[in-house]
Amino acid sequence: MPKLKIALTKGRIEQKTIDLLEEIGINCDFLRHKKRKLVFESPYDDYEFILVKAVDVLTYVQQGVADIGIVGSDVLYEDENEHYEMLDLEIGKCQFCVASTPSYETTDYRRKIIATKYPNTAARYFQEKGEDIEIIKIEGSVEIAPLLGLADAIVDIVETGDTLRENGLIIFEEMMPISTRLIVNRVSLKRNKQAVCQLVDQLEAHIQQKKVGV
Ligand code: PRP
After folding, report:
1. Which of the residues 66, 103, 127, 190 could staple to 7 if both were Cys, CB 3.0 to 4.6 A apart?
2. CA of 136 to the centre of ligand 1 (A)
3. What structural domains does the chain harbor?
4. Distance 42 CA to ligand 1 centre (A)
5. What is the mean predicted confidence (pLDDT) over 48-65?
6. Which among 59, 99, 3 is positioned nearest to 183, based on CA atoms?
7. With a 6 A CB cut-off, is 154 part of the ligand 1 pocket?
8. What is the pTM for the complete model shown?
9. What does the buried/exposed string (b/e) look like for 140-152 if buried means 16 or more CB atoms within 10 Å of the residue's CB?
10. Cβ(162) – ligand 1 distance below 6 Å
């Protein structure tokens, strides 16, 4: 039987994902001592892991190169794609927010400039509120955009709030919660139904147990 290929998101949620997989008995020691390696065949189970950027998790799953992807709902919301979202892993919790310097004027009718890594999410949010805005796409360190006068405010993810605080920004609007999701390629779900469902069931049961504190 071919190994199930799982695309994991590098960075922010990587360690929490590995912890969760180990909690359900999937030995991931090779992922903990990985150095610069990016593809890992488990010597213990029928799993193969690839470590990629969040948006690329979607691409690998969409193209059927990976069977399963583990990625934040921020990325899924921003870049709607063909996949099954099967489970909320309830890790990597944070939220989308509108933030700016304390002097940001929300009530005037001037057309606002919003800097963000998430242009579709920002556009949808303000459109639903009936506000016409201009969006400037930024790839990272978005917090400096209002400080340097590039934008009036930002739409970004906030986890601890440290980055906002350390840059003198405050939250003006809490847009929506974000958490890590397990997604599956549609064809792979049909082909590897048993293996995929077994993993999803195990994770789901474990997450429920953690919730009730067993
Ligand atoms: C994210 C986000 C904020 C920060 C928020 O950036 O864009 O900058 O994390 O986290 P906090 O509320 O815990 O401070 P990320 O670390 O993913 O890096 P990036 O700026 O390079 O995108």
Report:
1. 66
2. 17
3. 4-92+179-212 (3.40.190.10), 94-177 (3.40.190.10)
4. 31
5. 95
6. 59
7. no
8. 0.92
9. eebbebbeeeebb
10. yes
